[in-house]
Specification:
Elements: E1 5-9, H1 14-25, E2 29-34, H2 37-44, E3 50-54, H3 60-74, E4 79-82, H4 97-125, E5 128-132, H5 135-138, H6 145-165, E6 171-177, H7 183-188, H8 191-200, H9 209-220, E7 231-234
Parallel strand pairs: 1-2, 1-4, 2-3, 4-5, 5-6, 6-7
Helix pairs in contact: 1-9, 3-4, 4-6
The protein binds nicotinamide-adenine-dinucleotide.
Length: about 250
């Protein structure tokens, strides 16, 4: 089979689903991975070129079986998008160990496990890894001791992967989304948080899932063939620019 194959985790909804749809539009096949079997089944039902694989990315055995099943179904993997993620916004003192582990299991362990299991296949295709970080991994903020730290670790893991896997022709990059109105974000963004984000972002709006997917699919494509180890924010300008003191604005 010559068609390229992308493995996208957390693709039953949100940014992962939008990314899977873009890959299909761009002529790829997609292995859609999610632990929510019902949502995955309905999301993948009308997507020709995509196949669903139920898997919790934080469980090593499930990850190994999933990668084997993807290779049996498609015969190759050209890109891995580590997008599955969970969020919890809690003060440090209220972040008990179970809450900390819940975030790290998926956001950090999952990225490590899926990438590692796919390395032999990616060596064969000289493929690409795109990890999904967050502006919360680039800028410290209140209530994000677990979430922000997990995403900062993903940013560093991306650099490790680029350093170590480059000699096999495997590229690794990280996309850090700003706020996007998905189920994950709406569970933790109160109306106050939403208006504070709008106030602090030069583009003055939330992003949408497809805008993040476009950056992800670009980094997986041959158009980005000399790009590796990069951390790219798709965040409406939140991380690097900000809009300065409200009193100094017109
Ligand atoms: N939405 C935002 O504002 C925003 C901002 C920055 C970063 N992100 C990141 O983007 C990624 C996608 O987020 P989203 O907003 O689309 O979220 P979402 O909640 O809409 O989708 C996440 C998907 O991941 C799946 N998932 C969660 N844990 C899993 C696990 N252990 N194994 C397999 N599947 C699992 C869920 O079932 C769900 O389908 C996440 O990594 C998130 O941290 C989102």
């Amino acid at each position: 089979m010559t068609q390229k194959v992308a493995l996208v985790t957390g693709s039953a909804r949100g940014i992962g689903l939008a990314t899977a749809k873009l890959f299909i539009e761009q002529g790829w096949c997609v292995a859609m991975i999610d632990r929510d079997g019902d949502e995955l089944k309905s999301a993948s039902a009308d997507m020709s070129g995509a196949k669903p694989f139920v898997c919790d990315v934080s469980v090593p055995k499930q990850v190994d079986q999933m990668v084997d099943a993807v290779l049996s179904a498609f015969g190759r993997i050209d890109a891995v998008v580590n997008n599955a993620g969970v969020a919890d916004f809690l003060p440090i003192e209220e972040t008990d160990f179970a809450a900390w582990r819940r975030i790290m299991d998926t956001n950090l362990d999952g990225v490590f496990l899926v990438s590692q299991a796919a390395i032999p296949a990616l060596k064969e295709t000289k493929g690409a890894i795109v990890n999904i970080g967050s502006i919360s991994g680039l800028r410290a903020s209140t209530l994000r001791v677990a979430y922000g730290t997990s995403k900062a670790a993903v940013i560093h893991m991306t650099k490790q992967q680029a350093a170590e896997l480059g000699e096999y022709g495997i590229r690794a990059n990280c996309v850090c989304p700003g706020p996007v109105k998905t189920k994950l974000a709406m569970a933790v963004h109160s109306p106050e948080i939403i208006s504070a984000y709008l106030d602090a972002m030069p583009l003055n709006r939330y992003g949408n899932e497809t805008e993040i997917g476009e950056v992800i699919t670009f980094l997986c494509s041959d158009k980005a063939s000399f790009v590796t180890g990069q951390i790219i924010a798709a965040d409406g300008g939140f991380e690097n620019v900000g809009v300065g003191l409200p009193a100094l604005r017109s």
